[in-house]
Amino acid sequence: MIHGFIQITDTHIVAPGTLVSGHSDTAQALRRAVETINAKLPLWEGIDCAIVTGDLTDHGTPEEYAHFLSIMDDLALPWIAIPGNHDQRAPMRAALSDAPWMPSTGPVHWVRDFGAFSVIGLDTLLEGAHHGMLCEEGMDFLDTTLTAIGDQPAIVATHHPFMHAGLPAMDADNLRNGAAMIARLGAHRGPVRMLSGHVHRAVTGQIGRVTCQIAPATCHAVLTDHRTGSAPQLVLEPGAVTVHRWLDQPGAGLVSEVIPTGLFPGPWPFEA
Ligand SMILES: [Fe+2]
Ligand SMILES: [Fe+2]
């Protein structure tokens, strides 16, 4: 039986009627993502939930979380989330206090058992900073959870990636203290993967035996500028979500598809 989830990241919702940086209609982008997922779900087998990997809002205000929830209400899937650097824990916790995965205090760490694998959500938000830090409690949570799941495949979800994407303006603000986390993941008895957001584009790398994958945002992308010293700039490339499914077959495992959001011409049979 196939199990999987949809990764939604960096939705950056602001107050109704406003644009991020004067250009990006993030609410419209999230509505488009929700409509895309709902339309395609009948074609996708085994999707249990969505996982939102941070930057739900742009400033972490109660009004922004209310706006985020009003759009996500239309999603035909349950969802869980971790915060990003643009979130604020107290307003996020208040807005989601009814969610069974939301702890009543402290960082927002959780684990979700999908049967074929587990996803461990780790909160890397350091309030007041854009870069990420994994607190001691988070490292302990990871260690305890990996020990408990034995040789089951482990997928760690964070907002901030530890891998460098080769975009100096973004790499400066990644997860600064992830080496111990990667080492602990590398020592896990089962397959491992790290999924993140924050960089607003699809990038994949490898650190030791840990495949590291960064998912594209639903809204604006960050310009692919590889020059040292360049400032980050946004571009209105198509938004996307990432479908992760566990295929229990040789040559498979966790298979991840980046799906652009929106409606496109087709489908048509190969042979007309
Ligand atoms: Fe972001
Ligand atoms: Fe971020």
TrEMBL record:
Which residue numbers delimit the Calcineurin-like phosphoesterase domain?
5-201
Keyword check for Ligase, yes or no.
Answer: no
Q: What Gene3D superfamilies does UniProt report for this protein, alphabetically?
A: GpdQ, beta-strand dimerisation domain (3.30.750.180), GpdQ, catalytic alpha/beta sandwich domain (3.60.21.40)
* Top-level lineage group: Bacteria
- What CDD domains does the entry give? MPP_GpdQ (cd07402)
Please verify whether the record's keywords include Cell division.
no
PANTHER family in alphabetical order:
CYCLIC NUCLEOTIDE PHOSPHODIESTERASE CBUA0032-RELATED, PHOSPHOHYDROLASE
- Family per record: Belongs to the cyclic nucleotide phosphodiesterase class-III family.
Name of the protein described by the UniProt record = Phosphodiesterase
Q: Which organism is it from?
A: Tritonibacter scottomollicae
